[in-house]
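hey m, so remember when u said the tokens were messed up on ur end? i reran from scratch. heres the input so u can diff it against urs
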Amino acid sequence: MGLVTKEILKDVFEKQTAHQWVVRKSTAKERIEKLTQLKETILERMEDFVDAAMQDYLMPAETVQNQIYSVIQAIDYTIANLPTWVQPEKVENPQDGIAYILYEARGRVCIFGTWNSPMSVTIHPLVEALAAGNCVVIKPSEFNPHYNVVLQEVIEKVFDEQEVAIVQGEADVSKQLLSLPFDHFFFTGSPRVGKIVMREAANHLAAVTLELGGKSPVIVDKGYSVVKAAQNLVFGKVLMGGQFCISPDYIFVHEEGRDAFAETYRQMTLGMLYDDGRLRVNERTQIVNEHHYNRIKGLFEDAITKGAVILSGGTFDDGNRLIEPTLLGNVTEDMLIADEEIFGPLTFAHTYTDVNEVIQYIQGRPKPLALYMFSDDESFQQKILNETSSGGVTINGILMHNVHLPLPFGGVNNSGTGNFHGIHGFKTFSHQRAVYEVRG
């Protein structure tokens, strides 16, 4: 469809408004057929997606492929389980009849994608919206111009626009979409814009799912292997250049282990990113644009000016918009990096002597999308789980609560509202309709 006007958007919306009643009556078999076509078409265009992501921001082929395969896995999982999900859910029957829950489509869904993982934050929710029997309009990020061309061709090959449409443009298109009375808005992005989406959706009393972000903390228990912890965390900053919503943001390390952790972090960075003492340029994801590159560099410079020290990294490649995974120490609350979501390959380490200091610090800040802890002590793990709140948690690793499809993925308060993945996504895009039939 390409760039669109207000009239085109209204026309698509009206088509989907009329067609929603057809789609909601579709069977599990019919929905599975559409999902299968989507899967096959995405796989056919794998190399095109890889080439497009390379043009947009030098994303390595392996990263693009992994994003695609994660969505293929989600499609397969949905196909395998959809015949069960669509069945009425039995509840305890009353004495004079029967009662059950019907999962019916919400109707018209608008999905706002983002640039950092355009497949998993656009197609993944689409899969579950389709599984629930909805019509969908997708608005991808304008920061992925080459990727969006391929994505649009895939969508238009599989779907008629009265069922699924993709519209491109900048903030004005998003604003126009928010003015339309969709039944559900699904947004991935920053808390600042998430508040705008929620505010506009309130005009229609529409349901909203917000997948936001925040500063996701890491807690390394005293005595835990610094090698294992550092290896995971450096990988988390190399992957996509740290530009994903559940990227580890800052780290708590016991004061007795900070020096060992910092040195191990440095060695892991050298091992992953250097060849013969020279920083490798290829196979790394660029910072998406100059604005975000300068923002991240500004966080670093502000911290250094105010007294932070470099424990590892610190190399900036302005020409290629690449930043070496960098660990800072001596970060204080007056530094911008202590308050802003980094969304890049920087991080900083605080030290602690008592885990209650860590808990108090986390409790005093907005609830993050993810929390990571590295500990083999079950009592330590339970204490953190019981006394903090976050969208999700991975213990002794990173990202894993996001990739295991039976688990819900979503935030809490400042990091989002609602969730998706698997049955949780199917329910997000469904209305749970109570039915009570009196008999006798």
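this time it looks ok to me. The CA atoms of residues 86 and 155 lie 24 Å apart. if urs says something different then somethings off w ur setup not the seq
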